[in-house]
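So, is this right?
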Amino acid sequence: MIPIDTQELYTEYRPLLFSIAYRMLGSVMDAEDMIQDTFLALERVDGGRVDSMKSYLCKMMTNRCLDHLKSARKQREVYIGPWLPEPLLTEGTVGSSGGDPLETVMTHDHLSIACLTLIERLSPSERAVFVLREALGFDYEEIADTVGKTPAACRKILSRVRQKLGPDLPQAAPDYERHRDLLTRFVTAIGSGDHEALLSLLAADVTLYSDGGGRVLAAIRPVHSPAHVAAFLFGIARTQGAEGYEIRFADVNGAPGLLFAKEGQTDTVFSLAERDGQIVGVYIVRNPDKLSHL
């Protein structure tokens, strides 16, 4: 048996493996656990039997994620309120060109809270093909080897995914400066109580999702329409402002977002989705279990 230098491989492939796991699971903590499990298992593998370490590791990670998703589906079916992914802070990665492999992985498309929420509609196998192809740019031969299907089957799965997600699927990462400007106007309108200004920013089909997981106060159903979303947001502003929250801008999943903190502990994360300069989605993560890593 030829031993494998797992420490060197961990340094080289951790960013890629994290990107696969986080996009598939929507959980930072679960993604980290999957990485640890993968490299512990790798210590028992004969290095002489591995032709491509990248392919081998990606297959190990994908299979672990698929198994996890199958068990997690039942839990999410009984989840209280909308389920949103754990936010990932990406400061220093957005628009960077420093050459760090984590920067390359984290600045790809399909990392936003909106997109990760959208792919919850997919089956585990559909999600694997979508992430490997659309988010990470694997070719169909690599994907087929990773998920145990033929390249033709993988093409068919991706075609089905595109039909299923339809126009809701973002075609590219949002323009960073435009998104920051929209978020700034959003915060200003709420902070000043300017109802008309806020309504002008909200698309006719805007939806607000609030994830408290049954642990903290949050809307248990999505909120639709500009009028209802505005009323909900102004209600939050009155509550948060009265309780002395610290609010700051942060890069959340590759785009500008907002962090609400109280006594140094992040309490709420805001993220927006925009289309043609208007807000089509507001995503509010409040479940403490999903914020403990921040």
Remarks:
- The two ends are 41 Å apart (CA to CA).
- The longest helix spans residues 53-77.
- Confidence is low (pLDDT under 50) at residues 93-105.
- The chain has two domains: 6-78+108-168, 176-290.
